[in-house]
Amino acid sequence: MKNNWLNNKTVIITGASSGIGRGIAIKLIKEYNCTVLGIARSKEKMERLSAELGTDSEKFSYCLFDVSSKENWKNYRLYLEKKGIKPDILINNAGILPEFKKAENTSAEEIEGTMNINFYGAVYSVKELLSLILKSSTPAVVNIDSSAALMPLAGTAAYSASKAALKAFTEAIREELRGRCYVGLICPGFTKTDIFRSQNLTEKREEKIIRIISTSCDYAVKRIVKSIAKKRELTVIGTDAQFMKLMGKIMPVKGGKMISAILKKSGFKLFDGLN
Questions:
Q1: pTM score, two decimals?
Q2: Domains and CATH numbers, the chain
């Protein structure tokens, strides 16, 4: 891409080993000549990504650690400083989607684990890395959130809470950093990634329908990178996400009731925990 602020930047991406994070890494390297520092937990997946990049693999490196640990982020900052690495952009993409079930049936450990990865992982990264990023001439923080932050769904109390918290945090720091740092918030709907691995989709019919209503990963990645390139502050991706955004605005209570009723009557085992 010619004459775009993204060209030749050094970008940190969490959850870079698969799905959206992986796609963003590849696109930034191949189309914007970026240097990408990936963060994930799977060495095998990271090595696979590096191999797929071929001659561009020299623009990709990675560190393996759990983003929900405050200590890990402190150590990562020290690593960057020791190596003399000067990041321009932080993209918080790492996240988990727990099994659909009522809050009363969700353990405190599950809730805490979801909050730690989906929310605190992003908070810790910003807290530790922001001062380094602000040294860049084009500093940026982009948080990949979810449509669940726009309209929470029954059965996703922990997930929706973590994503709503991330949305509020992002919107707050956007104003605090306005004029000093670009802050972007991306809210995709259902996307064809492996985030449903915790849902135990045993029926082919359910898996097929989920895939049909989901946005393709390639399209989501394309929209995300385009939004970052244009420095858009909020991007909502997917028909389902747009619908949830609308319902959250015009029918915040009745909309949730209506969607919950549809999920319960769908007959999907995926939503059995709501009955």
A1: 0.89
A2: 10-274 (3.40.50.720)
